[in-house]
Write a structure and sequence with these properties.
Layout: H1 55-58, H2 69-73, H3 85-88, H4 92-107
């Protein structure tokens, strides 16, 4: 035990261990720089988003019929997907009835499952 053995060191990366990889080179430590201030738009006019209202509630449509293809086609995108209510403005109960009517119309081939290729 009096003799000490010397270890041979392997080249870096050969043993799979070693130092952990350095942080991403583009990331700089420290606080972020301030964001540019967002003031009024150039041109002077501010964009006004109109509140969306449910078409079925406004027109007092009680039932959504799966045979009414013209009505249903307004709520189906060109790709064939059902347009979400945040885009159409339809209320939740009517969106549920609308989606079931669209699915029924698809099953009997009044509406396409997929859009044009």
């Amino acid at each position: 035990m009096a003799e000490e053995t010397t270890r041979t060191t392997a080249p870096a990366g050969a043993d799979g261990g070693g130092e952990p990889p350095a942080a991403h080179p583009t990331v700089t430590p420290g606080p972020r720089p301030p964001r540019p201030a967002r003031g009024p738009r150039e041109g002077g006019r501010k964009y006004f988003r109109r509140k969306k209202v449910c078409k079925f509630c406004v027109e007092k449509i009680d039932s959504i019929n799966y045979k009414d293809v013209r009505l249903l086609a307004q709520f189906v995108a060109e790709s064939g997907k059902i347009v979400p209510r945040r885009l159409t403005g339809v209320c939740t109960p009517h969106q549920r009835r609308l989606s079931t009517a669209i699915k029924q119309a698809r099953n009997i081939a009044l509406l396409p499952f997929a859009g044009r290729a």
